Amino acid sequence: MAVSPALSQGRPYRAQAVRPAMEFYSWYFLRVSGLLLIFLALGHFLIMHAFNSILDVDYHFVAQRWALPAWRIYDWLLLVLSLLHGFNGLRVVVNEHVPAGMVRRGAQWFVALSTIVFLALGTYVIVAFRTPV
Amino acid sequence: MSAATVDPALAERQPDDALRPLDRTPLRVLRNREGHWAWVLHRLTGLGVLGFLCLHVLDTSMMLLGEDAYNHLIKSVYQQWWFQPAEIALGGALVYHALNGLRVIVLDLWEDGLRHDPLLRRLVVWTFLVVMIPLGGVMLWPFLPR
After folding, report:
1. Which positions in chain B touch A121 (Cβ < 8 Å)?
2. Nearest residue of chain A to residue B101 (CA atoms)
3. Could you say which of A35, A79, A97 has the minimum Cβ distance to residue B23?
4. pTM here?
């Protein structure tokens, strides 16, 4: 059997770009976060569009909600879980549909950086907002 | 990884396809299974909701720019009549993704699940209709002329 070129050149040989253990955690996380998001995301949507009308939502509406720390915690949990769930799903889609090589590497970096940027921006907004007096 | 997380049509891959990377799988083996459409819809609704989520983080960040900036955006987009179909589509995407996600979890955990998949898929469709028809009505109600 021929030795893999990567091995013969003394570079670490990687049969797969994905690590099985990490894929298991990703699989597990998608399910657990998905179950939590059924309550958090659908709850958020119903609060904004069914129990209230979108016509009621404005700066004061949001400011009033964020006057209560409980709603900031709710919104932050929703932000973190939905971003990690969504971008993890996008990561799986990229790995399955983008041909291996430079383009996939680029797409993976794009997914990772986007996750960090949106997590940071969303967290900053929820924490930094000051309730007007 | 369990069967339910992979497109059921992939089960039709030939033995030597195992040596072939997934992204080289010809499209024709991905066709013609009802479960395939559930899988396609799950991906599309997931990507759609993720796209909106990113926009939503950006629009909510306008809260830091003050009352006028935030209200201007909400009034000129979210509260316009022409945006309501998009809002309802977002709700529909969320509800479908949630219901089909539950189906996937049931298929993962229930050993005999795949045999009952036709029933599960029917449950997804009917629950979707039972939730979305009233929800769509409630969302459109304030926009109806009177």
Report:
1. 57-58, 61
2. A34
3. A97
4. 0.81
> Which residues are CB-neighbours of B7 under 8 A, at least 6 positions away?
B30, B33, B35, B36, B39
Report if residue A3 sits inside a domain. Answer: no
Structural domain contains residue A102: yes
Q: How many domains does chain A have?
A: 1
Q: pLDDT digit string (tens) for B83-131?
A: 999 999 999 999 999 999 999 999 889 888 888 888 999 999 999 999 9
Domain span at residue A96?
18-128
Domain harbouring A114, CATH code: 1.20.1300.10
What proportions of chain B, in percent to the nearest 5, are helix, strand and coil? Answer: 85, 0, 15
* Pairwise CA distance, residues B115 & A108, whole Å: 36
- Is A9 part of any domain? no
Amino acid at A18: V
Listed as own residue / partner, the contacts of B22-30 with beta carbons closer than 8 Å and 24 or more positions apart are B22/A96, B23/A96, B23/A97, B23/A98, B23/A99, B23/A100
Q: ipTM above 0.90?
A: no
Asked whether residue A5 is domain-assigned, the answer is no
**Measured between CB atoms, which of A53, A97, A122 is closest to B142?**
A53
Smallest Cβ–Cβ distance between A23 and the set B1, B79, B87 belongs to: B1
Q: What's the gap in Å between the CA of B67 and the closest CA on chain A?
A: 6
Chain A residues touching B90 at Cβ < 8 A:
45
